[in-house]
Amino acid sequence: MSVTNLSKTFDLFNPSESHLSLRESVSTFAEKEMDDQAKEHDEAESFNFGLFKRLGSELGIFGITVAEEDGGHGLDPVASVIIHEEMSRFDPGFTLSYLAHEVLFVNNFYQSSDKRQRDKYLSKVISGEWIGGMGMTEPGAGTDVLGMTTTAVKKGDRYIINGTKQYITNGSVGQVFVLYTKLDKNGRKMTSFVIESGYKGFSVGKKEEKMGMRSSPTTQLVFEDMEVPEENLLGSENGAITHMMRNLEIERVTLAAQSVGIARRCIDVMCDYTIRHREAFGKKLVEFGQIQRLVSESYADYSAARALVYQVASSLSPESRNSLGAASAKLVATQMAERVSRNAIQVLGGYGYCREYPIERLHRDSILLSIGGGTNEAMQKNIASDLKKIWSE
Q: Could you give a GO molecular-function term held by this entry (predicted)?
């Protein structure tokens, strides 16, 4: 049983038959195939290659926002949010690798590529034959993305790229990446490329040992005179900031959706434990006021955050942006998930702290979501900046 009712009524969360059908199929697959393997891969810090391939071959959820004529599903950011919410109930780490592939590469690449580039790469990533990712963050440039130092120098019919990217999801398992660089190391403009792991000068650096999201590999990518054909330039030289910012918005709402999924699972576990199973002093645990506060506040916070995430997702498209909404949704949902998962640990007591229940893993996983895709401090800065623009008009 779950706090979310999959009724046939179309609403903010399931705006069409396609969305509802997608939710039902992903929910069923995730519960059956992702739940049992999550603990094993978290403890081993290993990536489930076989399961990832099945997302394409069996479930068919790659290319969600790619037009049907280009081999995708032609759906919207709400559909992407549905997938991330449902999968994150069971394995947020594995879902993060899906996000890096589907949002950071597939959606990003599709919106900024030309027909020739799409013909070369789209079928491979939509089928799941190749795994994708994105290279933006660097050892000395995270939130200050324009401080990056990876450079691309034009030499004949190719670009020579040097630099290092840090904390790259799917770095050690991916075959293709959207890579952000500068043509002028001291400039403030960026240029992006689609690159392959087989290129000369490409190598995978240190693999990170992480607190959470352990089933999703995170590594450095190192470029030493890496040669990239000029036809792999995405868009125009010095023109990457626009599509980078556009893609950040769908990234932020899908990260927020992961937080919603984590909270939803925590609430389900809390309700099952306190209402159905655990008793103290001759009463069900849910009869005690202290427990009622934790459970009820968790559910109310989850419900509010979920509504905001879906409302913002419904406003996004390649033609329309919502920077203020995306930052707000990420800020609210990620804080909520940390709070709810911590509440769940407290409600379950010793069981919550131990690995018999998934709560401690979900809590560890939730913390990354307030860091990746722009820290929550950056979200606060962005919200204030957008409000300043609105009120200065």
A: 3-methylbutanoyl-CoA dehydrogenase activity
Are 298 and 386 contained in the same domain?
A: yes
Question: In the listed set 102, 130, 158, which residue is the last one of a domain according to the structure?
Answer: 130
| Count of structural domains within the chain | 3
- Co-location of 253 and 153 in the same domain: no
Q: Which of 36, 42, 40, 4 is nearest to 23 (CA)?
A: 4
C-beta of residue 216 within 8 angstroms of C-beta of residue 47? yes
Q: Which domain holds residue 278?
A: 241-392
186: confidence class by pLDDT, cuts 50, 70, 90: confident
Report CA Rg, the chain.
21
How does pLDDT run across 356-387, given as a tens digit for each residue?
899 999 999 999 999 999 999 999 999 999 99
Catalytic residue among 102, 251, 338, 360: 251
Tokens of 350: 């010793």
The CATH number of the domain holding residue 352 is 1.20.140.10
CA angle 253, 38, 36 (to 5 degrees): 125
138 as an active site residue: the answer is: no
Order of strands across the sheet with 132-135?
132-135, 176-181, 191-196, 233-234
Q: Place 10 in a pLDDT band, splitting at 50, 70 and 90.
A: confident
Q: Could you tell me the pLDDT band of residue 280, with boundaries at 50, 70 and 90?
A: confident
The alpha carbon dihedral of 385, 386, 387, 393 has a sign of positive
For 284-312, how does the pLDDT look when each residue is reduced to its tens digit (9 = 90+)? 999 999 999 999 999 999 999 999 999 99
Same domain, 35 and 150: no
Across the range 229-234, mean pLDDT stands at 97
Query: In which band, very low, low, confident or very high, does the pLDDT at 8 lie, cut at 50, 70 and 90?
Result: low
pLDDT given at position 3: 73
Domain membership flag for residue 10: no
User: Is the domain of 273 the same as that of 295?
Assistant: yes
> Residue 299 is inside which H or E element, if any?
helix 289-313
Q: What CATH number corresponds to the domain at position 216?
A: 2.40.110.10
Please say which residue of 91, 109, 130 terminates a domain: 130
Contacts 24+ apart (CB under 8 A), 196-203: 199/226, 199/227, 199/228, 200/225, 200/226, 200/227, 201/161, 201/225, 201/226, 201/227, 202/226
Compute the mean pLDDT over every residue in the chain, rounded to the nearest whole number.
95
Same domain, 47 and 175: no
